[in-house]
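Re: [help] complex structure
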Amino acid sequence: MQTKFKTALLAAGLMASGGTALAEESFSQWMISLTRHKEVKPVDNKAYKDECSGCHLAYQPGLLPAKSWEKMLNEKALSDHFGDNASLDADTLKEILNYAVANAADKSYYKRSRKIALATKTGDAPLRITEVRYIKRKHHEIPEKMIKGNKDVKSLSFCNACHTKAEEGDFDNDTVNIPNYPKWKDR
Amino acid sequence: MKKLCASMAVIGALFMASTARATPATDELFARYKSEGATGFDAERGNKNWVKESKVEGGEMMSCTTCHGDDLSKQGKHHKTGKVIQPMAPSANTERFTDVKKIEKWFKRNCSDAWGRECTAQEKGDFLKFLLTK
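Output below.
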């Protein structure tokens, strides 16, 4: 019995490690993993984390589909990145683009990323996470005064103003704390 | 008493000037800017450019201080994203001006944002000279 269990464990381990070699996050890895992939994959690339968080929350690649990252992460687009110049040297840009595309919503098995992938499957590639239908729907019920009119939030773009674990890729309701409206609960 | 204050101010100023620190990174950049045509660097000129206001798209007036603040030994704040910017003064932030790539990256971005064009080698050198006195 014990040997059988060990063999199974070994097989599982082999499958998982085999998966790593193939892709950032493979199907087998996802099947075997003990942690539930409910949220969005946390950022695990240093260049991506350092460069993006140099200016804002390093939005996880799993929050947009690959076509969006391709549209955003090129030299021309970065010279006017939502009104700011965010130019990168060619090597860094290449690493960041590759990482973003490999871990984009439509390449991820994380539950929230799957929903984003589905919502962006057709139509133009959104450049803003806040344009994604699924994200819009999720925030639909929150009154404007709590976001735009809230001096400690200002915009839906500042995920981490309310999502206290946004940096770890956790956007669960239970982790939300709207500044100045601590008692508001999503229904 | 007044005299004492004045002389102390002079001594203080001298002391400040002598503590203007250079790093291997800034030495490298000064040499590079010279090879790109710049001739001698001036902290005073850097200071003037630092506070010079110019109009960016949207009609807004901007200078370096818009985001970096008036006191370089304190944190600044990005005018759009609200990101906290660590102090520019090396006296308050020892990490400043120690990485050639980082300095050049931010010159490229910030000159474009504040002035709508890239800075010249001369302007960049003057800025560094000025900031190193802080």
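Residues 2-22 of chain A form the longest helix (21 residues).
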